[in-house]
Amino acid sequence: DRRERAFVLALNAVAFLGYGFFPVTFFCADPSLKQWVPAWPGADAAQYWGNLAGDAAWTVESALLMWRRRCSCRRRARRGPPRRRRMPRPRPHAAARLAPVPPPRRARFI
Q: Of 5, 37, 48, 57, which one has the greatest count of Cβ atoms within 10 A?
């Protein structure tokens, strides 16, 4: 369960970084980005590969979650319906057991 959550978190991080290339390429010019990142492939390539990474990550995530739900339904079907457990009676609080309960007051209408 923890590994699955970590994997989904990693996929969401990849999607966030991939889709994050669009605002960077939209608001910054290519020459200024080449100063900061020497291996900058260009705005068009970065946007294309970023969108591809985001779409692929979210596709894999949704497929993983649907497959996981299907497997858990199969496991539940093999076990049979869940047994009904009797709920224990609520126990009164210790202070409520010791203190006497005052009788209810009648409303007075004038």
A: 57
The answer to whether 18 and 52 are in contact (CB under 8 A) is yes
The residues, any chain, with a CB within 8 Å of residue 49's CB and separated by 6 or more, are 18, 21, 41
Predicted TM-score (pTM) of this structure? 0.57
Task: Tell the burial category of 24 from Cβ atoms under 10 Å away from its Cβ (0-12, 13-18, 19+).
Answer: middle
Buried b (16+ CB within 10 A) or exposed e, 32-54: ebeeeeeebeebeebbeebeebb
Give the relative orientation of helices 43-79 and 2-27 as an angle to the nearest 10 degrees: 160
Question: Three-class SS of residue 29?
Answer: coil
Report how far residue 61's alpha carbon sits from residue 51's, in angstroms, rounded to the nearest whole number: 15
pLDDT digits 0-9 by tens, 50-98: 999 999 999 999 898 888 776 665 555 566 666 677 777 766 665 556 6
In this prediction, residue 75 carries a pLDDT of: 57
